[in-house]
Amino acid sequence: MTGARTRAPRGRDGAEGERGAVTAELAVALPAVVLVLVVVLTLAAAAGAQMRSADAARAAARAAAIGEDDAAVRATALRVAGDGATVDVSRGDPWVEVRVTTPVVGGWLSGSPLRASGDAVAWVEP
Length: 126
Known about the structure:
This protein is of the alpha+beta class. It has helices spanning 21-65, 70-81; strands at 86-92, 95-103, 115-123. Helix content is 45%, strand content 20%.
């Protein structure tokens, strides 16, 4: 039989032998991709929480500097920082120091140990 086409046998060396390779590679690489995504999102959340804490501490220090009482200073800080924040006010003549600590992640993860803090010091006006 001249002119008859001969086919290469399909087996482990053929195209069908690599059918599951992409699936296996994805299964190996997917946890690493998810881990990198979690790290990037956590860093973004930490940066946002840090900025909120610093802004809240500055706003509260300004409120204390113009003569507001500690309850109003805490209310100002909590309004800027959001739920779950803790506010410490230390008064010393003639300075006031405000420290605001905010959880990095909210919701059901708000009890996590990741917290951002911001400090501000202001001179109390006479």
